[in-house]
Specification:
The chain has 81 residues and is an all-alpha fold. The protein contains 4 helices and no strands. The chain is flat, with a radius of gyration of 16 Å. Helix 1 packs parallel to helix 3 and helix 1 packs across helix 4.
């Protein structure tokens, strides 16, 4: 599930806190790990600011995307079983 969609759902539902997990190891393996980490955090904060300006229609569209992604994931998992 794309992190942006998870954050959008938290925003839509009025969540005040969320724990995000992300693998930052690739950022740290570069020549500028601190700069890359700062850039990733800056991008996350910018996305949160965008969410604060989102319309209800935009949030509803994302909710439907999340439902579709979950349904597709479950359907694929059921095929494996």
């Amino acid at each position: 599930m794309p992190a942006e969609k998870v954050l959008s759902e938290h925003h839509r539902l009025g969540s005040r806190q969320v724990i995000l997990s992300r693998d930052f190891s690739k950022l740290l393996e570069t020549d500028a790990p601190e700069e890359n980490f700062r850039a990733a955090v800056t991008a996350l904060r910018a996305h949160l600011e965008d969410l604060a300006r989102s319309t209800p229609d935009t949030l509803e569209h994302t909710r439907r995307d999340v439902q579709r992604i979950v349904r597709e994931f479950v359907a694929k998992r059921m095929q494996v079983l």
